[in-house]
Amino acid sequence: MMKIVLVGNAITASILNSYLRGDSRYEVVGFTVDDEFVAQGGFEGLTTIGLSQLQETFAPESCRVLMAIGYNDLNRVRESLFLRLKGMGYTVETYVHPDACVYTEHPLGEGCVVLPSAVIEPGVRLGANTMVWCNVTLAHHSLVAENCWIASGTVISGQAKVLRNSFVGVNATVVNEVTVGEYNVVGASALISKDTKSHAVHLARSAEPIRYSSEDYIKYFGV
Predict the structure, then answer these.
(1) Closest CA to 189 of 148, 139, 154
(2) Spatial separation of the C-alpha atoms in residues 7 and 9, rounded to whole Å
(3) Which residues are substrate-binding (predicted)?
(4) Cα(89)–Cα(165) distance, rounded to whole angstroms?
(5) CA–CA distance, 33 with 92 (Å, rounded to integer)
(6) What percentage of the chain carries pLDDT values higher than 90?
(7) How far is residue 83 from each of residues 42, 76, 129, 146, 196, measured CA to CA in Å?
(8) Where along the chain do the CATH 2.160.10.10 domains lie?
(9) How does pLDDT run across 132-175, given as a tens digit for each residue?
(10) What is the CA radius of gyration of the chain?
């Protein structure tokens, strides 16, 4: 059984801790964050260690670390911690939930997290330290680069590319052979049908109220 220290002590860490508790391959032995954040979260029964004390508490040869923090600052925080932990001698675990389906012949990048019901089709390349949430489809021969966050329900279509440090929101779709530039924000339910520039933001139009009441709408248009 692999001993794991989760990197994070907030909501993402809570979710991954729940998954790992039910996975016989792993034992979560603690949490780690930058020292100034130790008091801002945590979980009963498990220790949260400041990064400065990590090596003397959980030596690199005794465990692995798993990235369990959010997408703050376009994943730059995740990227910084990933690199620092590698520099401290830790192996960053690549976690694939047992209910995910991975068919690509290419090795997944170090430190990736792939959650339940995600499908990674043949030919996909997935970069290091990228989060793939539940019910995501990475279609054939697509690429998602390092330090990305792909939210639940997203579809990255065949031969599409999502470049480094991008955030793709819930139920977004990237069309075949389209490239999402690096450091992009793609909002929930957005449809990306053309290449985007780096550092761009693409949001779907929010649902807006119309002048009919729900009763009148059903009367005239049906549901």
Answers:
(1) 154
(2) 7
(3) 70
(4) 23
(5) 15
(6) 86
(7) 23, 11, 10, 12, 27
(8) 95-201
(9) 999 999 999 999 999 999 999 999 999 999 999 999 999 999 99
(10) 19
Q: In this predicted structure, what is the pLDDT of residue 4? A: 98
Domain 2-87 falls in which CATH fold? Answer: Rossmann fold (3.40.50)
pLDDT of residue 46: 85
Position 128, amino acid: A
| CATH 3.40.50.720 domain position(s) in the chain | 2-87
> Is the predicted pLDDT of residue 222 greater than 70, yes or no?
no
* Mean pLDDT along residues 34-61: 89
Three-state SS for the chain is CEEEEEECCCHHHHHHHHHHHCCCCEEEEEEEECHHHHHHCCCCCCEEEEHHHHHHHCCHHHCEEEECCCCCCCCHHHHHHHHHHHHCCCCECCEECCCCEECCCCCCCCCCEECCCCEECCCCEECCCCEECCCCEECCCCEECCCCEECCCCEECCCCEECCCCEECCCCEECCCCEECCCCEECCCCEECCCCCCCCEECCCCCCCCCCCHHHHHHHHCC
User: In angstroms, rounded to a whole number, what is the distance separating the alpha carbons of residues 67 and 218?
Assistant: 47
Q: Which fold has domain 95-201?
A: UDP N-Acetylglucosamine Acyltransferase; domain 1 (2.160.10)
Q: What would the two tokens of residue 155 be?
A: 């579809």
Q: What is the pTM of this model?
A: 0.92
